[in-house]
Design a protein that fits this description.
Number of helices: 4
CATH class: Alpha Beta
Oligomer: single chain
Low-confidence stretches: none
Radius of gyration: 14 Å
Strand content: 35-45%
Helix content: 25-40%
Structural class: alpha+beta
Number of domains: 1
Distance between the termini: 45 Å
C-alpha cells in the first residue's frame, strides 16, 4: 500500500463528505468499517449508516466543507488535521477543527476512523 494510494482515498473521502455524497463516500470504506465521530460516541458503521448520516447532515446544513490541512501517513494508517466550515439551514455558520486517525485494510479501504474534535462546540456556535 503506497502513501499515494492512501492520500487518494483520503482526498476522495473529504471531497465526498463536503459534497454530501453518500454513495461516493461509502465506496472508500471496507464492508465492516467502524467510525467513532467523535471518539467517545457510539460507533457507526460507515457503509450501513451512510444514508442516515448524510440525511442528518442535509437536514441541518445548507453546505459543509471539510478540508484536510495536514496528512501524516505511517504504514496502513494516517492522521489528518482538518478544518470544517458549515452553513446551517437556520442561517448561522460555524467552524471546527480536529484530527482524525484513519486505519486502512490491505485493499486500501478505510477500516476505522477515530475523530477527535468538539462536536458540542460546533452545535453551540450554530445555536448561539
Amino acid at each position: 500500500m503506497s502513501k499515494e494510494s492512501i492520500e487518494q482515498v483520503l482526498n476522495d473521502y473529504f471531497a465526498n463528505l463536503s459534497t454530501m455524497n453518500p454513495d461516493g463516500w461509502r465506496k472508500n470504506f471496507a464492508e465492516d468499517a467502524v467510525v467513532y465521530d467523535p471518539v467517545g460516541s457510539p460507533p457507526s458503521y460507515a457503509r450501513d449508516d451512510a444514508n442516515k448520516f448524510f440525511g442528518f447532515l442535509s437536514q441541518y446544513y445548507n453546505s459543509l466543507e471539510v478540508a484536510p490541512l495536514e496528512i501524516y501517513i505511517a504504514g496502513n494508517a494516517a492522521a489528518v488535521k482538518w478544518r470544517m466550515e458549515v452553513s446551517a439551514k437556520n442561517g448561522k455558520t460555524a467552524q471546527a477543527e480536529g484530527i482524525s486517525v484513519f486505519e486502512f485494510n490491505d485493499a486500501v479501504k478505510i477500516q476505522k476512523i477515530s475523530a477527535y474534535w468538539d462536536d458540542k462546540a460546533l452545535v453551540a456556535q450554530l445555536r448561539g
